[in-house]
Design brief:
With about 290 residues, the chain is of the alpha+beta class. It is built from 8 helices and 8 strands. An 8-stranded antiparallel β-barrel has the order 1-3-2-8-5-7-6-4, surrounded by 4 helices.
Length: about 290
């Protein structure tokens, strides 16, 4: 009898040990599945930041993003002026640039000309439009070389500058075309250096987002680079003052969908910059 009791006890211990081992295996397996599921969700979320939502196209980005019925080319110039020469520089610009803008002999228009208020100091920014694209740009440059007044202005301007750079731009199809406006306004130029290969994705999101930013007529123009720093986007905004800028930007967050646009476009950006600019007297955008 004692032997049978010992056998039952031993069998009970073995059964309990087997159940405990099985339960442990199930727990480990469950934790593994849970961890795997969490990793899958995290991987899915991470990949969603970079997944393209456009169909593959065998076409240049410029042809997909611009107004195909038009062939406007833009040139933006950044001139860093010697601090002691800024007033003289502005007067020289105001004496020469409007005459080029008004002369139909040159197929170009001065869209706007500004001094940077906040951002890079002692800087001038000029934005030109060439109706007719690259041929119009070439025609203007060739004609200006024969313009003695302009060549003298350019010579004197060179003495006032520390550095200068420019970019050739196209305009996004879903943005307004910049047109003259009355002031007084301040202007913000927000510049985004995108990751290579993300321009179409940026355009898809902003084609929807621009609708959230039209209520106060703040949207002036949107452009992307063709020559110069590539994958560069410029958004130009107008506000009555800095407080109006703050109120308008905060109001955008009250629209359903704006938060999603910000969430998905921020990972596309490598670098971004903001300038607050004051129009010169000769600027069509006041």
């Amino acid at each position: 009898m004692a032997t049978r009791v010992l056998q039952r006890t031993s069998n009970g211990f073995n059964l309990a040990k087997s159940r405990t081992h099985s339960a442990g295996q199930i727990a480990v397996l469950s934790r593994g599945l849970a961890a795997s599921s969490n990793r899958n969700r995290e991987d899915s979320w991470f990949k969603s930041l970079f997944v393209r939502k456009v169909d593959p196209r065998k076409d240049a980005h410029a042809n997909l993003l611009t107004k195909n019925e038009e062939s406007n080319l833009y040139k933006i110039q950044f001139h860093n002026v010697k601090p002691e020469c800024l007033d003289a520089y502005n007067k020289a610009c105001e004496a020469v640039l409007p005459s080029i803008h008004a002369d139909k002999y040159y197929p170009c228009e001065l869209v706007g000309t500004w001094n940077t208020w906040y951002g890079e100091q002692d800087q001038a920014v000029h934005l030109w439009r060439y109706r007719g694209g690259y041929p119009a740009l070439t025609e203007v440059m060739n004609k200006l070389r024969q313009n003695k007044e302009f060549m003298e202005y350019r010579k004197e301007r060179g003495k006032m500058l520390l550095s200068r750079r420019n970019q050739l731009l196209l305009e996004f199809s879903f943005w307004n075309e910049p047109i003259p406006r009355e002031g007084p306004n301040i202007y913000e130029l927000r510049s985004y250096q995108l990751r290579p290969g993300t321009m179409i994705e940026w355009g898809n999101y902003w084609a929807r987002a621009i609708g959230y930013r039209q209520h106060n007529r703040e949207a002036v123009g949107g452009f992307f680079s063709q020559i110069g720093n590539l994958y560069m986007v410029h958004h130009l905004w107008a506000y009555k003052d800095l407080q109006s800028r703050e109120d308008t930007r905060n109001a955008a967050w009250q629209h359903d969908g704006w938060d999603e646009v910000v969430y998905y476009t921020v990972p596309l950006i490598q670098h971004m910059d903001s300038r607050i600019m004051i129009p010169m007297k000769a600027s069509p955008l006041q």
